[in-house]
Amino acid sequence: MSGIPWLDPADLSFPPIESALDDPDGLLAVGGDLCLPRLLNAYRQGIFPWYEESQPILWWSPQPRAVLHPERLYINRSLRKALRRNDFEVSFDRDFAGVLLGCAQLSQKRPGTWITNDMRKAYQDLHDAGWAHSVEVWRDNKLIGGLYGVAIGRMFYGESMFSRAANASKIAFVHLCGQLQEWGFPLIDCQVSNDYLDSMGAEEMDRASFKQCLQIYTSKESKPAKWTLDWYYGKPPPACP
C-alpha cells in the first residue's frame, strides 16, 4: 500500500479520483470506515469500497468506468423467452437482507466474497436510511435471484447480483432498467466491465465524462425512501387504487 493515502476516520474527505492508481486500476485510498456519511460522500464522487476480509478497507475509482444507459439494455432471445414465460414475481425492497446474503454466498464459481459482515451491515444501514435498494425475483415464494445498489438523486450505482435459477439476475436487471427509465434515471454505474455486463449492453466511459455525469445526476436530489416496483416487462403497471 506504499504511496496510497490512508484515510482519517474523523475526516470524511477523499483524495481526488484523478489520483487513483493505474495498477491496480482505480485504487485510490485505504482505511477510514464504512459509516453512512462516508459512503454517501464516496458514491457522489464515483468512489466505492471493495476489499476482502483479511484486508483494510480499500477505496476504488477505476478508469475507464463501466456504465449502462437503461434505455440501451440488450435483451437476447433466450432472456426474452424467459421473461415471456412469466413464471416469476419481481419486487423492490422486499428482502434486502436476503439479497445481500445471496450475493455474499460462496459457490464453485464464487470461492471468495468481498461482501464481508462489515460490508453487509454498512449496506443494510444504507437501505434502512432509504439509500440502498434491492430487486428480488421470486418463484413459488422462494428468492431465486436479485441485485442491490445505491441511488443518489437520479444516479443508480449497481453493486452485486446473484442467481439461484437460470436468468434470475437478468430478470431483476431488466425490471430495474425499466423502472429507472420510467423514473428518469439516465445512467447505471456498473463499476468495471465484464462479459456478463457487456452482454447486457454496458459500455465504458472515461473518468472525466463519468465525473461530469455524477455532478449533474446526483444534484437532482430526491428524498431517500423505500422503493416500490410499478413497471413490469410486457404488461402495463397495475392500476392506481
From TrEMBL:
E.C. code: 2.3.2.6
Per UniProt, the keywords (alphabetical) are: Acyltransferase, Cytoplasm, Transferase
Q: What does this protein do?
A: Functions in the N-end rule pathway of protein degradation where it conjugates Leu, Phe and, less efficiently, Met from aminoacyl-tRNAs to the N-termini of proteins containing an N-terminal arginine or lysine.
- Subcellular location(s) per record: Cytoplasm
SUPFAM superfamilies per the UniProt record, alphabetical: Acyl-CoA N-acyltransferases (Nat) (SSF55729)
Q: Which domain of life is it from?
A: Bacteria
Gene Ontology biological-process annotations? protein catabolic process
Q: Which GO terms describe its cellular component?
A: cytoplasm
Do you know which InterPro entries this protein is assigned to? Acyl_CoA_acyltransferase, Leu/Phe-tRNA_Trfase, Leu/Phe-tRNA_Trfase_C, Leu/Phe-tRNA_Trfase_N
Q: Which molecular-function annotation in GO is an example for this chain?
A: leucyl-tRNA--protein transferase activity
Q: Which reaction does it catalyse?
A: N-terminal L-arginyl-[protein] + L-leucyl-tRNA(Leu) = N-terminal L-leucyl-L-arginyl-[protein] + tRNA(Leu) + H(+); N-terminal L-lysyl-[protein] + L-leucyl-tRNA(Leu) = N-terminal L-leucyl-L-lysyl-[protein] + tRNA(Leu) + H(+); L-phenylalanyl-tRNA(Phe) + an N-terminal L-alpha-aminoacyl-[protein] = an N-terminal L-phenylalanyl-L-alpha-aminoacyl-[protein] + tRNA(Phe)
Family of this protein: Belongs to the L/F-transferase family.
Q: Which organism is it from?
A: Zhongshania aliphaticivorans
Quote the protein name from its UniProt record: Leucyl/phenylalanyl-tRNA--protein transferase
Q: Source taxonomy lineage?
A: Bacteria, Pseudomonadati, Pseudomonadota, Gammaproteobacteria, Cellvibrionales
Uppermost EC category: transferase
